[in-house]
Amino acid sequence: MAILPSLSPDLEDVVVRGVVRRDFELSGMYRMISDRKAPPGLYGFDDPVDVGAWQSIGAEVVVKVAARKGPDGKIQVFGLAYLPAVSKNPVFREIISVNQEEVRVTAHRVTDALLEALTGRRGGFASHMAFSSRWTKHHRIFTVDADGHNLTPVTDPESTAIAPVWGPNGALFFSESIKYSPFRFAAVPPAQPLKLSFVRSVYASAFSLDGKRLALSVDEKDGSSSVYVGNADGTGMKRVSKTQVAVHPVFSPSGKLAWVGGAADHGMRRVYVDGKPVSPSGFSAASPTFCDTEDGIRLAYSVSIGGGRSDIVWSSETGKGIGRLTQHSGSNTYPACSPDGRLLAFFSERKQAGGLYVKSLKSFTSHKISARIGQSLHWAALPPPPSPPAQ
């Protein structure tokens, strides 16, 4: 893939091109042609693309992205793509006018649209992650863009906040303890309180893809925990787990429910899907997630491999055909899948290189996008934008 260089000094142009190129690098789907190999020519916003010149240096995909300030004060974001072996006409062309503060996220949306034009499946870069990480003496909830930009703490530094999950209408739900009180369900921005009858701690939550069901991991009187499932408003909750401990619920795109269950003595834990253990016996498992890939739904989770280390494995939705996604790279935990199923994010505690990583599930290459390490990682698409005027 060639992404045309730009000579424009305008910040919006630099941002758009930089974001789109970085997205494609993270995707692992294309080998990127260096700017140093660019053929001589003009590379302004209105300049035509010399597709033949790029094809002559090996480009199978030619992409141009640019941005400039329009006469109305808004920023015009331009995207263009060619498949030279298929047609001389572009497979994608769009100009969108957006406000200055929307330039970066618009660049991610352009990447997603380009991926759809090139592959038939829309990308997942217009998205965000959330996780819990220690901040001084407490854990806070952080959000971060899909490329590692804009790391932001969003909860009170004086409370303990864990287990974030993106819910209906783009709200971020989590469990919060104030001055060591039981963990209560909370949201950013504040959402309408749920009709929950639990008086003890709510440790974790999950919403189904259609936003109609809610699963909770709840503390029980005897020190155990259970997973309950009910309506999204908190009504109709019924216990579905049978093990002494049941934590980390997560819904599959197909509607199945997974969680981690085991004994209360901190011994062996296994991943359960709809009440059946699917992770291998003999390995303690944790933090399951589902990936809606082009090859079907996959279940990913971490397994303990001894010495305080963990690796991430994946299988079919029901546990068959297990394969490793990480190996010999420190301890790897808390996987989360991108909305398009092409990328897997996880925390890795590697020597001198620990942080948040993104692995392409197409080429299986990994990139570090942040130095911060946390837990309970969750990845979701951004709410769709208002329809912008197209030219």
The CATH top-level class label of the largest domain: Mainly Beta
In whole angstroms, how far apart are the ends? 26 Å
Helix content: 10-25%
Q: Give the count of structural domains.
A: 2
What can you see in these coordinates?
The protein is built from three helices and 27 strands. The protein has 391 residues and is mainly beta. It folds into two domains: 118 residues, TolB, N-terminal domain (Rossmann fold); 255 residues, Neuraminidase (6 Propeller), CATH 2.120.10.30. The strands form seven sheets. Strands 1-2-3-4 form a four-stranded mixed β-sheet. The chain has a four-stranded antiparallel β-sheet with strand order 7-6-5-27, with no helix packed on it. Strands 11-12-13-14 form a four-stranded antiparallel β-sheet, with no helix packed on it. The longest helix has 17 residues. The relative contact order is 0.11. The mean pLDDT is 94.
Keyphrases for this structure?
single chain, about 400 residues, mainly beta, Rossmann fold, 2 domains, four-stranded mixed sheet, four-stranded antiparallel sheet
Write the layout of secondary structure elements.
Elements: E1 2-3, H1 11-27, H2 51-56, E2 62-69, E3 75-82, E4 92-98, H3 103-119, E5 127-135, E6 138-145, E7 152-153, E8 160-166, E9 172-177, E10 184-188, E11 202-207, E12 213-219, E13 225-231, E14 238-239, E15 245-251, E16 257-262, E17 269-273, E18 276-277, E19 285-293, E20 296-306, E21 309-316, E22 323-324, E23 331-337, E24 343-349, E25 355-360, E26 366-370, E27 375-381
Parallel strand pairs: 1-2
Antiparallel strand pairs: 2-3, 3-4, 5-6, 5-27, 6-7, 8-9, 9-10, 11-12, 12-13, 13-14, 15-16, 16-17, 17-18, 19-20, 20-21, 21-22, 23-24, 24-25, 25-26
